[in-house]
Fold this sequence. Notes:
The chain has helices spanning 3-15, 421-424; strands spanning 28-34, 39-41, 50-56, 68-73, 75-79, 89-96, 101-108, 114-122, 133-135, 147-154, 162-168, 180-184, 208-217, 222-230, 233-241, 251-257, 262-270, 273-280, 292-298, 308-310, 318-327, 332-340, 349-355, 362-370, 380-381, 385-389, 394-405, 408-419. The chain has 446 residues and is mainly β. The protein folds into 2 domains: 28-122, Immunoglobulin-like (Sandwich), CATH 2.60.40.10; 133-424, Neuraminidase (6 Propeller). Strands 9, 25, 26, 27 and 28 form a 5-stranded antiparallel sheet that branches. The chain has a 4-stranded antiparallel sheet with strand order 1-3-6-5, with no helix packed on it. The protein has a 4-stranded mixed sheet with strand order 2-8-7-4, with no helix packed on it.
Amino acid sequence: MSHRSIGLLLLLLGACTDPAPLQTPSAIVLRIAEGDAQEAPIREYAPLTLVVQAVDATGVAQAGLPVTWSAVVNGEVTALNETTAVDGRAEARFRFGDLEGPAEVIATVPGGGSVRFALRAAPPAPGVPYDTMELLAFSTYEGMGETVHPDYARTPWNGLWHLLAITPYPGGNSGYENPSLFAGRSPLLWPVPTGVVNPLAQPSKGTFLSDPDLVFVPEANELRLYYRSVDTQNHILVLQSNDGIQWSPPREIESAPNHRLISPAVVYRGPGDWWMWSIDGGKEGCSALTSALELRRSTDGLHWGRPVAAALEHDGFTPWHIDVQWIPSRRQFWAVYNGKLTRSCTTPALFLATSPDGIVWTPIREPLVRRGAIPAFQDVVYRSTFRYDAGSDDLWLWISGARFDFDRWTWSTALQRRHGNASLLATPSRGSLDFERPPALLTEWP
């Protein structure tokens, strides 16, 4: 047989067998999931944990990979996981050093390169002792300084890092109850940001506004302000901004008969993953026997699905106004809410509840704050907001409430810093949840 024939035979034989598969290892990509571009005072923990995620070239999460964390500038970093979890994520907490200015952390995974977190240390904040109440001062646009409905948010924008949306409510006058914006480099000090003109929204004829809720959308570099307008119906509207100064015209996103859509609490967890809780106060509002928590879902925060019932009640209390946040380090939602009793919205306490799915909630029976905790909250504890720092395990609460004197309600907002919330969540009630009847009942309610 000729050499040419032998070569042809070998070629034919090769065609009848499967070639050995090519073994191409999947490239590992490490990316920042959460925690970049944070700021906190020197010697304090960054507000959020630093989170990375390891995926392969197709975007599939990679579990069990060791992650090395290094604080290369101005601070110290502590890993919270030795390896990536099932979702490919690993977390660390960062504490700033003694110098104001830039700080950097590098996370590395074998075969996946590294990512760099850029952070910044701010000047020291005024001291805030644990478990005390500090009344806050606001330069409200009408000049009275009485406030209700605080809501906290963060952005990466210089000068607008920590934000509070809040509504003035002097003497319970809803004519001034319009969403306003304040920014603070300290939890205690909240000036009007440069360039911002309050109020951000004003009512149309015959309506009033309330219940502001701030949400930042990182992918769009956009801040949203949700709020409620009331006439013959409850309307939820939203303003949008890319700098916190210039805002879009209001856009209505949801409505319901009075008083079935109260206190929207919007959470954005990532692209296509929007949640909104609200309170159904029934036809009678304050005079109703009870209230109910509802949840809506959305892919863009503008178009919402039908509400579903969520379970949150205990000891005769149901939620009246609520703020909800997703806590990544604990993989659960947290809510703070003032508890409503039968036929009254003169709410006597602020509670904390947790939920893995946003539907079934576990309330912590002992209130976070009871009415009478300070003289300014002698008769009412109302809608409040919070920030949880996973690194320091601190819970910061901005609380609104009121006292009744000489036929007039006076409204205030205060700050409280709580520590050791892992134990707080497991703390049993210290006693009865009975409250004395207040000297007056809210008939016009914010």
